[in-house]
Design brief:
The protein is an alpha+beta fold. It contains six helices and eleven strands. The longest helix is centred in the N-terminal third of the chain and has 39 residues, at 26-64.
């Protein structure tokens, strides 16, 4: 089914579930729709957690101005410790985001989470900052990306998704940007849990409003091409559910 816009994503997503059975009954359609709703709600909750961190930071900054326009102080200084304490407070004990990166307009970065340190960046490093400045505090998401940056103590890479927004001062002026990061393994663990069950009969795909594949995130070029076929078919129907034919195998499937 073509689902309504996600509150946290600020875009629409859809879950495409493919049945490999040739026997299609109305009860299966109800199962698909229930599964859609459940997995969408769980995924949205994880995204809302990421959103809450940066939105709380902006709200708190409008009241206290704890985020200066220039982040040139050390995280080990008294000012730096207070700054980190506020980030950790907004991130809560459950760590709504595994990593929080705060960037000013001069290339200074303060990182808190899996990596906690002072850092620097260039406009090339943080291309998202220009869009964040244009949106003036509204959030937007990356697509999943692979990096070693947050693999603390390990040389292996992992998959992550970032939520971005501009940081604002007490007068709602843009002074930089906030990036909250979460591991895709955590973000999509409810979907992975479902798919790991021997009784799981559905394949699940999540797309953003531009048709970019969000889940599964670690895919081959061939699977991405096939997923786009599904996306084009489903986004072109008013009902958002029905029966289709697999472009590779020719097997009919039910989708929602």
């Amino acid at each position: 089914i073509l689902l309504p816009p996600l509150i946290v994503l600020a875009i629409f997503a859809l879950f495409f579930l493919r049945y490999n059975s040739n026997i299609l009954i109305s009860r299966e359609q109800n199962v698909l729709q229930t599964l859609n709703t459940t997995l969408m709600r769980e995924t949205e909750n994880h995204l809302r957690d990421m959103d809450t961190v940066s939105s709380k930071m902006n709200f708190f900054n409008r009241k206290t101005n704890f985020m200066p326009a220039v982040l040139d102080f050390s995280v080990t200084s008294n000012e730096g410790q207070i700054f980190l304490d506020i980030i950790q407070m907004t991130n809560e004990l459950d760590l709504n985001a595994s990593q929080v990166n705060v960037i000013d307009m001069y290339g200074h970065v303060i990182r808190s989470g899996t990596i906690t340190k002072n850092d620097t960046c260039s406009a090339e490093d943080e291309k998202w900052l220009d869009k964040a400045k244009q949106l003036r505090g509204k959030k937007f998401l990356s697509v999943p990306y692979e990096t070693r940056k947050y693999s603390a103590g390990s040389s292996s890479s992992g998959w992550y998704l970032s939520l971005y927004r501009a940081s604002l001062d007490g007068q709602n002026r843009v002074i930089g940007g906030i990036e909250t990061v979460k591991s895709c393994k955590v973000l999509f663990r409810d979907i992975a849990s479902y798919l790991s069950k021997g009784s799981a009969q559905a394949e699940i795909f999540i797309f953003d409003s531009n048709g970019a594949l969000i889940y599964p995130y670690d895919t081959s070029g061939t699977q991405k091409d096939i997923s786009q076929t599904y996306y084009q078919m489903l986004s072109g129907t008013d009902d958002g559910y029905g029966i289709g034919t697999d472009p590779e195998s020719g097997i009919k499937y039910q989708y929602a």
